[in-house]
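Ex. 9. Protein: Inorganic pyrophosphatase 1.
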Amino acid sequence: MARVVVVFDFDKTIIDCDSDNWVVDELGATELFNQLLPTMPWNSLMDRTMRELHSQGKTIEEIAASLKRAPLHSQIITAIKLAYSLGCDLRIVSDANLFFIETILKHHGLIDYFSEINTNPSLVDEDGKLRIFPYHDFTCAPHGCDLCPPNMCKGIIMERIRSSILKEGKKQFIYLGDGNGDYCPSRQLGDEDYVMPRKNFPLWELIFTNSLVIKAEVHEWSNGEELERVLLYLIKTVVIEDDTYLCSIDLQVSNYTNIFT
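Predicted structure tokens for Inorganic pyrophosphatase 1:
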């Protein structure tokens, strides 16, 4: 069983953009999106925008094609594959949606490296229209977390993942993220875990100004190259006593420093 569980955010962490904004911009719906943004929750707005695009004749194939153009750093692909090869359990917790995430991961040959994708559900209906729904149905059962958007509390998801996996024995978690929504799950981590906020993004700023709330050890990153280097360094730190995990890979971490220590 995997000793290290790596939990990734998706937007601006695995891919180097926000997938919602990317599709909206690529398909020419930015003006409508910005007009409606003050009137409804983001998740509901994405569903409304997909319906509007469908009414304009945009197809699900065009949406998929735009997603396949979303930027994904080659060394993040490498990091995912290496972490998996080293025996880590890889999971995603994202406020994007399942169609967007699966389309991008399949395009880059990464879908099978993840044991679980936690995100807003989506489906293509009988008319070929993409529908996007909230992870938590906030109209019937609000999650009650003041830190998170109404459609998804990543902290609740992280708590469920931790409680389930820890029944198998000792595990250590590495959480990677960038946004405000990644702060709540970061607070769920223990003092033997690690959190990797993207430097100068909202999660990094929240941790930097509220460092006493975070029990996990903090290691920042800025780009795909640093994500790969820092993630593999942390995996090495956890499994250092078992050299069989490490004999086939040069981790190249000699220049890595942690500004939070």
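Check your answer against this statement. The chain has two domains: 4-17+71-120+134-245, 20-68.
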